[in-house]
Write a structure and sequence with these properties.
Elements (H helix, E strand, L loop, with lengths): L1 H6 L11 H11 L7 H24 L5
């Protein structure tokens, strides 16, 4: 998120305002994958990625969910 904030004035492409919320919705709709041992790690990794983006968005005041 900080990279988006720093390089946006230099021409970094903007993120779609709907991409993040759509990915959050997809993640939340697939939460039962947590109960499948072979898919648990991938789902948790995606959750961590999403939470990190949310934290960075709030911290740096940039919409980059």
């Amino acid at each position: 998120v900080l990279i988006y904030k720093r390089y946006r004035p230099r021409g970094m492409p903007r993120l779609s305002p709907w991409a993040g919320p759509v990915r959050w919705l997809k993640l939340l709709l697939t939460w039962p994958k947590v109960f499948i041992p072979s898919r648990r790690a991938a789902w948790i990794a995606q959750l961590g990625w999403r939470l990190g983006r949310l934290d960075g968005s709030l911290r740096y005041r940039v919409w980059a969910l």
